[in-house]
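About this split. The held-out portion is used to measure sequence recovery: a designer receives only the structure tokens and must propose an amino acid at every position. Recovery is the fraction of positions where the proposal matches the reference. Here is one held-out target exactly as it appears in the evaluation file.
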């Protein structure tokens, strides 16, 4: 459930800003809202944190490390700051050397056709009236080069001619300067010869190697940086709270939110510390954080929400329980293979037992994995799908578990499973509209509950329309009551969806939104059809598994002997591995979607919440 919040305003003396911040952090009850926090110390802490984060990324130690505790003293942070400074300095040097190596390499490649020479010799010749120019010419330019100036072909490559021209004293222009060659493009004289550049390259590579070794050595101290960052994060939060207090002369005000259940405890702490506190219910325009608190059996679904990064808004619904129940069903139907479920369940069970022995508790992700895989085993057993191989389902005791109407290898089961998917969708959406109805009845505009009941009645009628469209009118003729349910439900939505006090005005608004509600009705129709994806993905998984099984058996019989057995084993193993991986992706794409889009959409959820994060200074 989403825990009710109280908005808290704490008034303290400005002289007690730091001590009050420490006391609030030790209390750990208040989610602080800071609109603007500025101070020199905060800016310095943030800069240092960013530098350390960059340093950790540079040494390739960005992964979270288990068991790292925050640094406990400023001296440890200072030591980590020195490590960070060295890493950044070494990285800058590596970047400079890499740029230099690239630059030298380009120059070596450019001079390679000329061979080694000393540019000082060229300058010596120029001082004595012999101007040397090197030009890059095309074929046509080379053919039309001036014949009265001596030239040498240095390189010919892909229609490019590198030519050296020598203008002596008899090749001067009217001004007395060396004759200028205008053909082609000039080849700039280097500052160093080829051999000198190669020596520079060797020295640069040696320096680069030394700097990389220094960086590797510094990387061994990455955990010190991470420990310092944990303390810095706490210090930044502390300084943000302290600097973010609104100050008016001798008083400071800090605002935030606390769980309503902790209000008495918070007031007692305020009295002990000499604070003035105002607690009130959040106003309509307030945006309280969301604190989801559930019993253990529901809380196991939280890793999925953490993975998705979704948080319900404070005034939205906590769908954790229904999400868990239906996600387990969707997971089982999408994977659809009891063999795959068993392969995933056994290691989860092993690690759960191991964790229980070692720590006394089983992590939520492992419990969730076992629940999901048990659902897969259950569905696979009912449908007789064990690695997509029918003979397994025909053997005892597996054959006893198969329900004929859902048997994967019987053609008639396809329609039964599709019917089940549509029915499951209607049940899923029914929970959403019942939930909306309950909220409307407990709110100030109770007539809106009739609109939610209208949607509920409407999807029942749409269910029969879906059957009529998908399976055909001959097999599923539209019942006489289906159309009245659809039209009656839509009428209730039109009349009551905008009721907020004035009935006539609400009806007018409802008719004004007729087009929008009509599109929503079409959306409800497509929502029900959308649940057929559970059948389609499961069928595809079965077909892929069966195809690889057939390929493996054909390889075994075609090749024969040990070679055939090895080939069949590889084909079947790789095929089922790929199929299981694709099924896992399908769970994310389809299983999550039905909860987060179709169901949440019916609830009107936007998932715009922010997590309740109480300010704490005693991070462990």
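Reference sequence for scoring:
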């Amino acid at each position: 459930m989403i825990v009710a919040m109280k908005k808290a305003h704490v008034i303290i003396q400005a002289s007690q800003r730091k001590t009050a911040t420490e006391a609030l952090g030790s209390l750990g009850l208040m989610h602080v809202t800071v609109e603007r926090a500025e101070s020199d110390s905060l800016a310095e802490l943030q800069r240092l944190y960013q530098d350390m984060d960059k340093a950790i990324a540079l040494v390739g130690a960005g992964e979270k490390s288990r068991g790292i505790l925050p640094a406990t003293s400023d001296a440890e942070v200072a030591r980590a700051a020195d490590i960070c400074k060295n890493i950044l300095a070494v990285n800058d040097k590596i970047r400079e050397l890499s740029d230099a190596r690239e630059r030298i390499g380009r120059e070596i490649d450019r001079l390679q056709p000329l061979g080694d020479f000393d540019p000082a010799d060229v300058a010596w010749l120029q001082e004595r009236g012999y101007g040397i120019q090197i030009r890059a010419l095309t074929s046509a330019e080379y053919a039309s080069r001036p014949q009265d100036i001596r030239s040498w072909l240095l390189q010919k490559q892909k229609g490019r001619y590198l030519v050296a021209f020598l203008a002596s004293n008899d090749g001067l222009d009217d001004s007395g300067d060396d004759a200028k060659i205008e053909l082609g493009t000039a080849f700039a004289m280097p500052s160093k010869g080829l051999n000198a550049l190669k020596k520079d390259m060797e020295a640069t590579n040696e320096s680069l190697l030394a700097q990389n070794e220094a960086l590797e050595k510094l990387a061994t101290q990455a955990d010190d940086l991470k420990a310092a960052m944990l303390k810095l994060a706490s210090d930044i939060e502390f300084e943000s709270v302290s600097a973010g207090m609104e100050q008016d002369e001798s008083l400071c005000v800090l605002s935030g939110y606390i769980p309503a259940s902790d209000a008495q405890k918070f007031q007692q702490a305020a009295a002990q510390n000499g604070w003035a506190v105002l607690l009130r219910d959040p106003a309509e325009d307030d945006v309280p954080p969301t604190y989801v608190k559930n019993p253990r059996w529901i809380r196991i679904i939280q890793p999925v929400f953490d993975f998705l990064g979704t948080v319900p808004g404070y005034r939205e619904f906590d769908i954790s329980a229904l999400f868990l129940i239906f996600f387990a069903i969707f997971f089982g139907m999408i994977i659809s293979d009891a063999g795959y479920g068993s392969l995933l369940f056994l290691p989860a069970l092993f690690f759960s037992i191991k964790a229980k022995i070692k720590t006394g508790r089983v992590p939520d992700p492992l419990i969730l994995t076992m629940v999901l895989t048990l659902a897969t085993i259950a569905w696979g057993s009912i449908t007789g799908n064990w690695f997509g191989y029918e003979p397994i389902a025909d053997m005892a005791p597996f054959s006893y578990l198969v329900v004929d109407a859902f048997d994967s290898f019987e053609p008639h089961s396809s329609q039964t499973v599709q019917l089940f998917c549509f029915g499951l969708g209607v049940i899923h959406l029914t929970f959403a509209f019942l939930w909306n109805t309950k909220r409307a009845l407990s709110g100030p505009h109770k007539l809106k509950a009739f609109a939610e009941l209208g949607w509920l009645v409407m999807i029942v009628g749409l269910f029969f329309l879906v059957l009529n469209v998908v399976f055909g009118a001959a097999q599923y003729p539209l019942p006489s009551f289906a159309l009245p349910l659809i039209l009656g439900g839509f009428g209730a939505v039109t009349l009551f969806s905008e009721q907020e006090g004035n009935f006539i005005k609400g009806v007018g608004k409802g008719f004004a939104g007729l087009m929008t509600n009509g599109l929503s009705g079409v959306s409800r129709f497509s929502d029900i059809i959308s649940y057929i994806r559970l059948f389609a993905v499961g069928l595809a998984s079965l077909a892929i598994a069966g195809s690889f099984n057939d390929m493996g058996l054909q390889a075994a019989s075609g090749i024969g002997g040990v070679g055939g057995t090895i080939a069949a084993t590889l084909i079947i193993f790789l095929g089922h591995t790929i199929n299981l991986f694709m099924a896992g992706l399908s769970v994310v794409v389809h299983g999550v979607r039905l909860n987060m889009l179709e169901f949440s959409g019916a609830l009107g959820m936007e998932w715009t919440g922010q997590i309740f994060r109480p300010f704490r200074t005693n991070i462990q």
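Annotator remark: The chain has 22 helices and nine strands.
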